[in-house]
Amino acid sequence: MKYNAFLLVLLFALMSFVPNLPKDRNPKSLASNSISKKVEVVFNSLDANNFNLPNLESFTKAFEGFSILKEQGKIKNNYLTIIDFSLSSRFNRLWVIDMKENKIIFNTLVAHGKNSGEDYATKFSNENESLKSSLGFFTTGETYNGKHGLSLKLDGLETGINDHARQRAIVIHGADYVSSSFIKSNNRLGKSHGCPALPVELTKKIIQTIKEKSCLFIYFPSKEYLNNSRLVS
Q: N or C, which end of the chain has less CB nearby within 10 Å?
């Protein structure tokens, strides 16, 4: 009996020294929790610069992919452009953020593709001639002068999601249908052939800022995208 009592005491003592392990031991979930804590600090310290802040959800996903791409050397500067297609086209749903200064420098209107929806974009594609927007992460490329004036080429970084962007001629350009006057007349913004078109008066400034290997993220709360992307958790 004394021997059994000794074993019970020893077992209790060993159990008392076992560290408390997290209930969720999935590495991806733990990494996501770590990102969430970091992104909240960054988000809460953002200098809005008299603009509206992006939604925390879209910013979190953008920050996650931006961090990975920066580490991989696929983006070369500190500008992060976020387009939030969960919002109405009547709202300023594009943000350009200087991640080094932690400051919003542009917040404006942006068009979605003709076949992606009316006021809201809800349908997305990577296919040629779909006239739909694509989701996910892009790098900005070189500029050129086309039928819309100064334009900026984009390269999709996510296979099967947006990697046909260049061959589809998905570019950033200005368009007169991206304006408050168009919204007043039509109760929505005008639509592109899949390009994220901008107000004409801001196009040059934005393109000159984000050209040559900055990060662009187009967000929508799509389960299909979240399940297939390797850049967001």
A: N
